[in-house]
Amino acid sequence: MKPARIVITGIGLTAPNGNTLADFRHSLLNGVSGVSRIEVRHMGQQLAGVCTYDPLKYQKRKELRVGTRAGSISIYCAREALADSGVAFDALPKDRVGIYLGCTEHGNVETENEIHNISKFAYDTKFWSHYHNPRTVANNPAGETSLNLGVTGPAYTLGAACAAGNLGLIHATQMLRLRECDFAICGGVSESSHTFGIFAGFKSQNALATHEDAAKASRPFDKARNGIVISEGGCLYTLERLEDAQARGAKIYAEIAGYHVNSDASDYVLPNPTRQAECVRAALGRSGLAARDIHIVNTHATATPLGDIQECEAIRAVFGVDCPETHINNTKSFIGHAMGAAGALELAGNLPSFNDGIVHPSINVDDLDPQCALPGLVLNTPRAAARIDTILNNSFGMLGINSTLIVRRFVA
Q1: If DSSP codes are grouped into helix, strand and coil, which group holds residue 174?
Q2: Annotated active-site positions, please?
Q3: What is d(CA 88, CA 112) in angstroms, rounded to the nearest whole number?
Q4: Is residue 103 part of a domain?
Q5: Is 199 helix (H, G, I), strand (E, B) or coil?
Q6: Structural domain harbouring 57
């Protein structure tokens, strides 16, 4: 039997430069950065991407006090995706709805805040919040979302470092095909810009970006790139089996064409271009597409000096020959690295290309690193394409996890 066809029917997001897909896309086509300077405890002013969505749109103040930033982002994105999908959600059997959220890290900021608070009271634990444990468990973002929506089906997070956003969609696709659920809410979320530990960790690795102009700080592929801009964000999708989407007359953004996940098994943080290329090739194989059939490759590139070179080596190995219609771009140059939300946001930013025929660029590339030069690289200015029918989205993460997701224009 052929596996069920899985389609995207709704998108909800918040990014540092947009709180709807339309606003996000407008920013990507008009060079609008979402990077600014924020105050980080113990570290002072740091470059970061922070979202400005309205948390009270779908939650009460008490719920926000009890819950987490990651949970709030998840609820906002899930509700926005459901509204966008047009599904009669109240009529859906809630035990047949699955929530699968990719997340890089969760709970760090909650523990940091509690330690900071009780330090004012000689570390007396009677001042420690009794909400700390439910705030910090790994399944919190999905759990808060299930509580808000009344979903009684499976709801959990997927820890996959910075490959997590892709993995949320991949896992939801698998669960729909296995008929473990009939309707999936999936993608990735991150609250990274609120935790001191993430900033301190990257600082200790000399991996935090610096630049006098915040908007130019995230600069993948540029010779002067010098590190990551830490960001928060979220992007959730509604996925359905094609027959169910068609039965209710849903609009369809795209169809899941292929995917693959593998591991480097070689280093804690340094990427392995051979394994990355293998991941891309396996996803192509599953989709039945050749490299030359891909029209947009969205890179993971984070603007670290070595990481960008390694990924470009992998892309060159797959797309370096006979791919005249393949365009290559990057989204982190606009918003920084949204960690667990990165892959999901980056896919969303490219999906409108199916309608407008435009490839958004990588910005802030004033002096292209020759080791990052790739055929089809779109720099600084949007490019009109002869056709855009396929998008390949790469997301790679620490401890060597790699994910590639391919979507295609939906054709009945």
Answers
A1: helix
A2: 162, 300, 337
A3: 40
A4: yes
A5: helix
A6: 6-247
